[in-house]
Design goal:
Blueprint (H helix, E strand, L loop, with lengths): L4 E3 L6 E8 L5 H6 L6 E5 L3 E2 L4 E2 L12 E3 L2 E2 L8 E3 L1 H7 L4 E3 L3 H11 L2 E5 L19 H5 L5 E3 L4 E6 L5 H9 L2 E6 L5 H7 L3 E4 L13 H10 L2 E4 L1 H9 L4 E17 L4 E13 L9 E7 L5 E6 L4 E4 L14 H9 L1
Parallel strand pairs: 2-3, 3-6, 4-7, 6-9, 12-13, 12-14, 14-15, 15-20
Antiparallel strand pairs: 1-9, 2-10, 5-8, 11-13, 16-17, 16-18, 18-19, 19-20
Length: 339
């Protein structure tokens, strides 16, 4: 048990999977990233909130993390673009923050024991673990995916974006390259994609266990077999499953802005932004139609795949960053070159 000062939330407590983020900046993007749905995010950097909350930085309309755990939270934002403080915005979004926590000790615990269910509460006697929804089992994608087709941009290249909980930065990257982007629900059938007359398909990031969407894999396989395809994070895992590989859960995941990834073909290393608790199981690649293109230098886990024959490639990390480095930004250009 770790103690601190709780700001906001509800009397019955806030439940979620406890995970940690290692970036020094990017707290606004993290809080609004749909991939963090169902999770309590611990920030390893000791001071959060010093540059406030800014316009045009959020990755979705609402805060997605269930709660934030912070060592010290700045009461004001000291930046000329700051519009409000982290505390004020968290209160507006009804997302609790617990501050004055020994986050170093807490993260050491998670590294040793793994990501786990947690609760933020002021009433220990009232804790009821039946309120906890494990990310492994709960279909969070259904909550964060768009319910109808949304279109952005007006370029000549038309891209369909399968929305499992996409970040706004992905749309920005595509439209800046001259694309028209149609964001479609996670369960969109192949016939709808065909009717949209797209030039390529992007499978987005998103929360939870990819095997929660096993019933949709036949659709994803068909779409990716017909159209030039790029997939990121959860999308990467889903296409690996669709083409014969398997996935597994990491002990505590990769969440931060400083993960080194090696491109096998060139031996080039990119520093990458990452946010995932599941990975493609390297022991199952030999039974699939996919080939490994990138690996994580820290633990050797799979970070990129390509299909043996199709114009299809995937990455586990986030080339759009937000937050984090943009070393792998050229992957969006590569996607445009294969359609």
């Amino acid at each position: 048990m770790f103690t601190g000062k709780v700001i906001g939330g509800n009397e019955s407590g806030t439940y979620g999977e406890a995970v940690f983020f290692t970036g020094m900046t990017g707290y606004q993007e993290v809080a609004t990233d749909p991939s963090y749905r169902g999770q309590i995010v611990i920030f390893t950097y000791p001071l959060i909130g010093n540059y406030g909350i800014q316009d045009y930085t959020s990755q979705s309309e609402e805060w997605q993390a269930n709660a934030l755990v912070i060592g010290e939270c700045s009461e004001e934002g000291y930046h000329y673009l700051s519009k409000k403080s982290v505390m004020n915005e968290a209160n507006n979004m009804n997302v609790p923050i617990i501050v004055d926590v020994d986050t170093r000790a807490l993260v050491k615990c998670l590294r040793e024991q793994g990501a786990m269910g947690a609760v933020i509460t002021t009433d220990l006697d009232g804790v009821d673990w039946s309120n906890y929804q494990p990310v492994d089992e709960y279909p969070f994608v259904k909550e964060v995916s768009t319910k109808q087709i949304e279109t952005y941009g007006a370029g000549d290249t038309h891209i369909a974006l399968y929305d499992f909980g996409h970040k706004r930065a992905m749309i920005q990257e595509l439209t800046q390259l001259g694309a028209k982007v149609s964001v479609v629900p996670f369960d969109t059938p192949y016939e709808t994609i065909q009717h949209l007359d797209v030039d390529g398909v992007l499978f987005s990031n998103g929360p939870g266990n990819p095997k929660q969407l096993e019933h949709e894999l036949h659709i994803y396989r068909k779409v990716a077999s017909v159209y030039p395809t790029f997939a990121i994070c959860l999308g990467h895992q889903l296409l690996a499953l669709a083409f014969g590989a398997d996935t597994k859960k990491l002990k505590f995941g990769h969440r931060g802005a400083n993960q080194p990834v090696l491109e096998i073909a060139t031996q080039k290393v990119d520093m990458t932004a990452q946010n995932h608790g599941f990975v493609v199981d390297d022991e199952t690649i030999g039974h699939s139609e996919m080939q490994v293109t990138h690996v994580n230098i820290n633990d050797g886990s799979i970070e990129g795949l390509k299909h043996e024959e199709l114009p299809l490639f995937t990455v586990q990390y986030h080339p759009e960053a937000s937050p984090g480095p943009k070393d792998s930004h050229p992957l969006f250009h590569q996607f445009f070159c294969i359609h």
